[in-house]
Amino acid sequence: MINPTMLFRIKNSWSRFTTSHPKFPMFLQAASKNNVIQENTVLEIKITTPEGKNLSTNVKLTNDDLALFNDLKEMAR
């Protein structure tokens, strides 16, 4: 069962995050509207530390991944 208190904390944290980083939700909205997130799409994440170290990975999306994203989108409404 979902803990309502945790959902409230996540909602508040997301609000602070999007206030600090307004381009990120705009990026997600653009990706969603332009139908670029679909099966076999590759998502890549790259992290660069202040010291210049890099770490990156990627995933090729499956139908199960898309179902998870849709569930999260519905839960956010």
Can you offer a commentary on this structure?
The model has no long low-confidence stretch (mean pLDDT 91). The protein has helices spanning 4-20, 23-33, 63-76, and strands spanning 42-48, 54-60. It is 55% helix and 18% strand. It folds into two domains: 1-36; 39-77, no CATH class. The protein is built from three helices and two strands; from the N terminus they run H-H-E-E-H. It is globular and about 35 Å long. The chain is of the alpha+beta class and 77 residues long.
Question: How do the helices and strands line up, and which of them pair or pack?
Answer:
Layout: H1 4-20, H2 23-33, E1 42-48, E2 54-60, H3 63-76
Antiparallel strand pairs: 1-2
What is this entry, summarized?
The protein has two domains: 1-36; 39-77, no CATH class.
Gyration radius over CA: 15 Å
Model regions low in confidence, pLDDT < 50 over at least 5 residues: none
How many helices? The count is: 3
Within the largest sheet, what's the order of strands?
1-2
SS content category = alpha+beta
Order of helices and strands: HHEEH
Helix content: 40-55%
N→C terminal distance: 18 Å
What is the domain total for the residues? 2
Q: Name the overall outline.
A: globular
The average pLDDT is: 91
